[in-house]
Write a structure and sequence with these properties.
Layout: H1 8-25, E1 61-66, E2 69-73, E3 79-82, H2 87-94, H3 98-104, E4 106-114, E5 120-129, H4 131-145, H5 150-153, E6 154-155, E7 158-161, E8 167-170, E9 175-178, E10 184-187, E11 191-192, E12 195-197, H6 217-225, H7 236-249, E13 258-262, H8 269-280, E14 285-288, H9 292-299, E15 306-309, H10 319-332, E16 335-338, E17 346-349, E18 354-358, H11 366-369, E19 372-376, H12 394-423, H13 428-453, H14 460-470, H15 472-477, H16 481-490, E20 493-498, E21 501-504, H17 505-513, H18 522-530, E22 535-537, E23 547-551, H19 556-562, H20 571-576, E24 584-585, E25 591-595, E26 598-606, H21 607-614
Parallel strand pairs: 6-12, 13-18, 13-19, 14-15, 15-18
Antiparallel strand pairs: 1-2, 2-3, 4-5, 7-8, 8-9, 9-10, 11-12, 16-17, 20-21, 22-23, 23-26, 24-26, 25-26
Helix pairs in contact: 6-7, 7-13, 12-13, 12-14, 17-18
Length: 618
């Protein structure tokens, strides 16, 4: 596909509008001399002075308080949590309108001067700020406004969902939204729809004019991504492109999918990070060898995307797992709570899209894998691969496409992909993750480009079959907790030797089920299993059996079996109760079984029903 981004008159118009905006930003800020009247009001003489109300047109906006802290948006648009007051703090709140502060709470001094006739007279001029009066006024207003929680009410840079359902982009210096006529509108950050959008150093701004799919840089980006040697060449580049689009959406998404690129050295993982940085530019936190604390200290209230290169598995280190946990919380916008200084806890809510890469990823649970797409890269053939060409306007054009197409994305494209994935047999979590990625890709390149890469979007039934085959490996790896627990138990070695080797629980059960050709009769099998704190019950009318009896209460031998797993200290009982009732019998169908002469209330695992569930295999 030849590169065909927006050109001609539309591109010229976009550049011209952008230049106009930036020139307007350079307009001089006016802050009259503090001795002059403002709207006919003399210094310090406004109604309610000095603290019964706020002075008129105050450039610093008080939001509220929390204990001894007063939250104020400074004249420069940044949020300040003020506990200690001094002149430096007041200057930071009012700059670049410091003269206003001198006008509102003036302290005067007398000077000798001359009148028009040359006679000496005494006059008063503003000499300094009555700091205590200014402090009392601002604290008073904080108490009047009530309690304020910055963790819930503050939105930083990135994409957000407005109260009216529109997509809002906070670039740091401006809030951007497309109006009903399709025109791009900008406003200074501030309170909007019950949220405070804060000002910060500017990141990418949306493209000034609308961008159609056939002139989108995303089409060429997808062509470039196809040159990597993906395990699923018809799907993985689309998922990667979808993540690039979701990266801008951030806090506006109901579900934020993550991606994890894996593969050996020389497969192009780091190059993918470079192309991501080139597209997203400064609208990205690009990190290497970081920690979860390092991430949320950088991110704060921003919903900008985060990439972490070389998040490798390291034995004995929990650093990578903490980063994965943070990405898991970010997918749904869950809150993280941590202890802080002076016994005061702090909370953090991440609403960022995460991208990781590693040769060998850290171990992840089902709850982590279902929230991300694992994209495996293979070695590039000699002579293959394509040097990425990215323009500094590419990300801005994609951002504008998101803003123009947000309604269609939410009302048509995303529901269609979720329906297709449902037909493919995906669960709700997979529909959220893959559906969002695929819908985001379609938004910027259109259906024709997806057809060209091999996704038959025009035939939903065939597309569902295609996706079912492509995602089969992900489904098999997503084992339910009860099944994971049972498989762990069956593979657990029993602390007793036979001919120099330890038998596992599963081996004992298989030998018993062989009947006369096996090593154990019922009594022998029970004796062996009892060493692991387990029992064995013969088949009965309740099901097919035989039944593995697993005590529900803590048991020393079972504690030892599960001590290095997620099911320790009785957690196995909770997990097994999540199984289908025909596989794990519980409630009235459970039994009290004697294990080493001690009666134990046990769950009964119907081994025949379990075999039907997992299949016999070869």
């Amino acid at each position: 596909m030849a590169r065909k981004t927006q050109t001609g008159l539309a591109a010229i118009q976009a550049h011209f509008r952008d230049a106009e905006r930036r020139l307007a930003e350079r307009a001089d800020l006016t802050d009259p001399d503090p001795n002059e009247e403002r709207d006919g009001i003399r210094p310090g003489r406004w109604m309610g002075a000095p603290w019964d109300r706020m002075p008129p047109n105050c450039p610093a906006k008080v939001l509220g308080h929390d204990g001894n802290t007063t939250f104020i948006v400074s004249a420069s648009g940044q949020l300040h949590a003020v506990e200690k007051w001094d002149m430096h703090v007041l200057a930071s709140l009012f700059a670049p309108f410091v003269n206003y502060m001198y006008w509102a709470w003036p302290a005067f001094k007398k000077i000798k001067t001359e009148d028009a006739e040359g006679n000496e007279i005494t006059a008063q001029i503003v000499d300094r700020v009555e700091r205590d009066k200014a402090m009392i006024c601002l604290v008073q207003e904080g108490k009047r406004r009530g309690l304020f929680d910055p963790e819930r009410a503050v939105r930083g840079r990135g994409g957000w969902l407005a109260e009216n359902g529109r997509f809002v982009w906070n670039s740091g210096e401006y809030l951007w939204m497309v109006d009903d006529k399709g025109e791009l509108q900008a406003a200074e950050p501030g309170e909007l729809g019950g949220y405070l959008y804060t000002r910060a150093p500017d990141v990418d701004r949306p493209w000034e004019t609308a961008v159609a799919t056939d002139e989108s840089p995303a089409v060429e980006i997808l062509t470039t991504l196809k040159s990597w040697n993906w395990e699923r060449p018809y799907l993985d580049p689309v998922l990667f492109l979808g993540w690039l689009v979701c990266a801008y959406m951030g806090g506006a998404l109901a579900w934020r999918p993550a991606i994890f690129t894996t593969g050996g050295a020389g497969v192009g993982k780091s190059t993918l990070h470079k192309i991501t940085q080139a597209i997203l530019h400064n609208s990205l936190f690009a990190l290497v060898d970081t920690t979860a604390a390092g991430i949320y200290q950088h991110v704060k209230q921003d919903s900008l995307p985060v990439t972490v290169d070389e998040l490798e598995a390291k034995k004995g280190s929990s650093k990578a797992m903490a980063v994965i946990e943070l990405a898991r919380l970010a997918s749904s916008g869950g809150r993280m709570s941590r202890g802080g200084a002076n016994h005061e806890g702090t909370t953090f809510q991440a609403r960022n899209c995460f991208m990781f890469s590693a040769i060998i990823p850290p171990p992840m649970g089902v709850q982590d894998k279902t929230r991300m797409a694992i994209l495996n890269l293979k070695k590039l053939e000699l002579g293959n691969g394509k040097e990425p060409v990215v323009h500094d306007t590419d990300g801005r054009m994609i951002l504008r496409q998101i803003m123009d197409g947000w309604e269609e994305f939410g009302q048509r494209i995303l529901p269609d992909w979720k329906k297709t994935l449902h037909l493919a047999g995906c669960d709700a979590r997979a529909m959220d993750t893959y559906g969002t990625l695929l819908a985001a890709a379609e938004l910027v390149v259109g259906q024709d480009a997806l057809e060209e890469i091999g996704l038959e979007v025009s035939d939903q039934t065939r597309l569902a079959e295609h996706l079912k085959a492509a995602l089969a490996s992900e489904f098999t790896e997503q084992v339910e907790k009860w099944l994971e627990c049972l498989e762990y138990l069956l593979a657990a070695p029993i602390d007793a030797h036979r001919s120099g080797e330890k038998l596992t629980v599963g081996t004992v059960l298989l030998e018993f089920e062989k009947g006369t050709s096996g090593l154990f009769d019922l009594g022998g099998a029970r004796d062996r299993l009892a060493l692991a704190g387990l029992g064995l019950v013969k088949a009965s009318g309740a099901g097919e059996g035989p039944y593995l009896a697993v005590p529900t209460a803590k048991h020393p031998a079972l504690n030892k079996v599960f001590q290095d797993s997620d099911f320790y200290e009785g957690g196995w009982a909770t997990a097994l109760k999540q199984a289908p009732e025909d596989i794990v019998l519980r409630g009235p169908r459970a039994k009290t079984v004697k294990i080493q002469r001690s009666p134990k209330h046990c769950l009964l695992v119907d081994l025949a029903a379990y075999d039907r569930k997992v299949g016999k295999g070869e």
